[in-house]
Design goal:
two-stranded antiparallel ribbon; Pectate Lyase C-like; single chain; 35-stranded parallel sheet; mainly beta; 425 residues
């Protein structure tokens, strides 16, 4: 209510303002007033007693915050600092957000090598909608036995702006994220710096969404992998993922008892630039798609073994030590199209072709590729394509530029009668 006192400005009477507020409280029930009240995030320092000084053990304080947030529905905020922990931080309730100011100023360091840093699990029951954001997660010493984030049956889980490890020190984590079961795991805008084993491991997980990730290995590592997709993974959607150094970039396998192969993967703008193994190792997979992707490695660029359905389109297979792509026995329904495959056999010129096909492999297509010296690289591949002597059948080699290889354009030892080889240069 406005009171005109004859001056140019109108003011609110304090008494009337108080009366209006009292009337509003009468109108709103206590339940309604509580429902519209804003929820304040818990502060691990001011609300839960964490020090964040890098030397005080903050495990109990942070775990108390997690327990409180599970009941209240609040988020948990980590102000800038270094938080020392000595046992796993356990999240067993869903609908929880833990976040720092940014991943460069908020560190959580695990001092017990045998323990996980975070365990997100509820005795095999689903844990729904947990989000970790703007944090740096690492161990105090190299090569820990624990897993940085272990997810058991996690649903709709998000990792955003997370730094795993330290780019200046090798192996301050062994595995960044280990997810078993669950569905809809999102990993976005994050870095994995020099894992001791692998950046991420997935098994039995439904949809996995990966975007804008750097997974950096150590040049000397000969046993590390960027990402492992194991039994039961279905629906991988990856965009702008870069794996460098280490051994293998992307590994697809089926190692779990009674498991089914990983299937339905879509990889766009994904790079494997590793030094000591395969860029893409398809030990077991089904229905995978690589688009505008890359392989430049210390062995075979793309190894295709037990696979039913793989498409490689508009990609760059450059400068691998062995063949650019190797189709081994067990590979079927493979299409390689509109790609550049050049400078492979780089350390022993003329020893390996651009594409090597084992005897008996059938149902593959090599269409409209440039396979030979290109993009500033010289001729090092023996042939553009070698189909080994044997019962290969039901394949097409059509429309490729196979010029500028050391030995020749292609070598066809396939004895099958259902094949098309045409319109190649």
């Amino acid at each position: 209510m406005l009171i005109d006192d004859g001056r140019s400005n109108s003011v609110v009477s304090p008494g009337l303002l108080a009366a209006a507020a009292a009337s509003l409280l009468l109108i709103l029930s206590p339940e309604r007033a509580s429902a519209i009240a804003p929820t304040q995030d818990l502060n691990v320092k001011t609300d839960c007693g964490a020090a964040g000084d890098g030397s005080t053990d903050d495990t109990t304080s942070i775990q108390a915050c997690i327990t409180t947030a599970a009941a209240s529905g609040q988020g948990i905020y980590f102000p800038p600092g270094t938080y020392k922990i000595t046992s796993a931080l356990t999240i067993s309730s869903g609908n929880m957000l833990l976040h720092g100011t940014n991943s460069g100023t908020t560190r959580i360091v695990q001092y017990t090598a045998a323990d996980n840093l975070f365990t997100i699990a509820n005795s095999g029951n689903p844990v729904n909608q947990v989000s970790l954001r703007n944090l740096q997660l690492e161990y105090d010493a190299a090569n820990p036995a624990g897993i940085t984030v272990y997810c058991d049956d996690c649903w709709r889980t998000t990792f955003y702006h997370i730094i795993f490890g330290d780019p200046g020190t090798a192996h301050l984590f062994t595995t960044g994220i280990w997810a078993t079961g669950g569905n809809q795991v999102f990993v976005e805008d994050s870095q994995f710096n020099v894992a001791g084993s692998q950046g991420m491991y997935f098994t039995g997980t439904g949809d996995v969404y990966l975007s804008n990730l750097e997974i950096n290995g150590q040049a000397a590592d000969t046993t590390t992998t960027g990402i492992v997709f194991d039994s039961g993974v279905g629906g991988v959607y990856a965009v702008n993922v870069n794996v460098t150094s280490g051994e293998t970039g992307y590994l697809f396998e089926n190692t779990q008892a009674g498991g089914i192969v990983p299937k339905f993967g879509f990889f766009t703008n994904c790079l494997a630039d590793t030094l000591n193994g395969e860029g893409w190792d398809f030990e077991a997979a089904s229905s995978m798609r690589l688009t505008n992707s890359w392989a430049a490695t210390g062995n075979y660029g793309i190894l295709v073994k037990s696979v039913q359905g793989l498409s490689i389109t508009d990609s760059r297979i450059y400068n691998n030590v062995s063949a650019g792509i190797w189709l081994r026995s067990g590979a079927t329904d493979v299409t390689i199209k509109d790609s550049t495959i050049t400078a492979n056999s780089r350390t022993s010129s003329g020893s390996f072709p651009g594409i090597l096909v084992d005897a008996g492999v059938g149902r593959f297509q090599v269409l409209d590729n440039e396979i030979g010296a290109a993009d500033g690289f010289s001729a090092t591949q023996s042939y553009g394509v070698v189909i080994s002597t044997g019962a290969s059948d039901n394949f097409m080699l059509v429309g490729n530029d196979l010029q500028n290889n050391v030995t020749g354009e292609y070598s066809n030892g396939g004895t099958g009668s259902h094949k098309v080889i045409a319109s190649n240069l």
